[in-house]
Amino acid sequence: MSKNVKFIQGNEVCVEAALYAGLDFFAGYPITPSTEIAEHMSLRLPQTGGKFLQMEDEIASICAIVGASLTGHKVMTATSGPGFSLMQEGLGYAIMTEIPCVIVNVQRGGPSTGLPTGPSQGDVYQARWGVHGDHAIIALTASNHQDIFSITVDAFNMAETYRTPVILLFDEVVGHMRERLVVPEPEEIPLVERLRTSVKAGVDYHPYLPREDGRLPMSDFGGVHRYNVTGLFHDMWGFPSNNSGVTHGLLRHLVDKIKNNVEVITRFKEYYLEDAECILISYGSSARSALHVMENRRSRGDRIGLLELQSLWPFPYELVRKKCANAKHIVVVEMNMGQVIRAVKRAVDHPDRVVLANRIDGFFINPTDIKNILRLIQGKGV
Amino acid sequence: MERCRLVFSGSGGQGIITAAVILAEAAVLHEDLIAVQSQAYGPEARGGASRSDVIIADSEIRFPKVTQPNVLVCLTQEAYNKFYSIIRPGGLLLTDTRYVRTWDKVDARQREVPMFQTVMDRIGNPVVLNILMLGVLIRLTEIVRPESIMKVLETRIPPDFLEMNRKALYLGTELGSSFIS
């Protein structure tokens, strides 16, 4: 058998994918159920010539990766809900200063310290709006190891392309379970490298002056150019500004660079949607249970399909609207009190056809939970 | 092949989870099968009955947990009491004679095997009880070959302990032979 086949935990897959994508700096503070990411990273980074730092807390962790990224490195940190809450300030700073980085949140039950070892998908809206102020964000997810690998590489590529933090929203189930991973060959997945300025040493470099294509070339901080970086609204020099035009232009830029690329950023998988009367919409580990139910019902002749979302933010409203146009029933499967369902209802032409199949008790949502909702819809009772 | 759903249970330190990982890894890396392994991470894993689920199949596995195992291994009485009722009727229920007293009412092929006694008599070190158990299990189920387990052990076990593990595995397959019916 090929050397490229591994049997490892989802958290370890995330580490291998990050290294594949070119990660060379990780700072973090271990927390269940993300701990194996820090643990495995502390083993693997020194082997590949990178640096691993265990920080004193999550605030320091995100600040360390943001600083390291600015000096030219590909960076990541990993945490779970409580740590992700602490990271919001640093996350907002990275959004405002447009510093590429990847933040993994292996979700557990919340709020607060919640259910450390129980699965949950309760941080979907925290990923979107945990940071104060208007902004846009990219959040990706996956339901199996092969997809965790490719979506993690995508996260690094998008962080560089759009100069933005990208959030990977995994969960306890996919993070801890072991299954097969076929590690792609080098160059099998294209990588996006840092866009660096062509401005030479001794010539003025404008850190926030976009090129004609809208992208902002970077100069490794501490290198040949001196420039300012601030979380305040700033001009093309990076200096604070409260000029109306500057403020308006920057905020619009921060939102538009992601909003205008929804179709490019969107990642999804679809199963039997063409003739589906009932469409399940799910993501992350919940999509595994949804897929189980769908295959089971299809084999009996039911016209049921599955739309698995792998990018949650920016939400693919148009995609969901089109895919669900002919569905009589839309069932959103997730482990929370109804988060992605809010976006789905906003997206579809008939929000009254959308119902929730959820589980919130710290146990993995199982096929029976979903089948019960399908029975209810069909008027059969549970 | 028929989809094989296994639950391994016992108490912390018996190597239950390690055994589950080794079996699933052997299936994937050396038998070209599909496998998923998961385990209890909650308070129950920090004292009390610990548990690990493995599914082995030749087609994609979606739902990764086991609700009704066709193979259940219980290495303590507490684990047996907690899990015997979830076994698929007619499934294989493997227990250790020293640790577990079984009940006749259970609708399963119950195999009470003197695994602990064998490991102490023939090797003298309980640390390889889990590997001996794997030997018994693969002999009774034929789910993977012992060579595949050995290949995994060679990558996981320090060289000085490999021979002891090899001995335990093959003692297990030998012991398992006398419990096939």
TrEMBL record, chain A:
<dbReference type="InterPro" id="IPR009014">
    <property type="entry name" value="Transketo_C/PFOR_II"/>
</dbReference>
<dbReference type="Pfam" id="PF17147">
    <property type="entry name" value="PFOR_II"/>
</dbReference>
<dbReference type="InterPro" id="IPR029061">
    <property type="entry name" value="THDP-binding"/>
</dbReference>
<dbReference type="InterPro" id="IPR052368">
    <property type="entry name" value="2-oxoacid_oxidoreductase"/>
</dbReference>
<dbReference type="InterPro" id="IPR033412">
    <property type="entry name" value="PFOR_II"/>
</dbReference>
<dbReference type="InterPro" id="IPR002880">
    <property type="entry name" value="Pyrv_Fd/Flavodoxin_OxRdtase_N"/>
</dbReference>
<protein>
    <submittedName>
        <fullName>2-oxoglutarate synthase subunit alpha</fullName>
    </submittedName>
</protein>
<dbReference type="Pfam" id="PF01855">
    <property type="entry name" value="POR_N"/>
</dbReference>
<feature type="domain" description="Pyruvate flavodoxin/ferredoxin oxidoreductase pyrimidine binding">
    <location>
        <begin position="16"/>
        <end position="199"/>
    </location>
</feature>
<feature type="domain" description="Pyruvate:ferredoxin oxidoreductase core">
    <location>
        <begin position="276"/>
        <end position="370"/>
    </location>
</feature>
<dbReference type="GO" id="GO:0016491">
    <property type="term" value="F:oxidoreductase activity"/>
</dbReference>
<keyword id="KW-0560">Oxidoreductase</keyword>
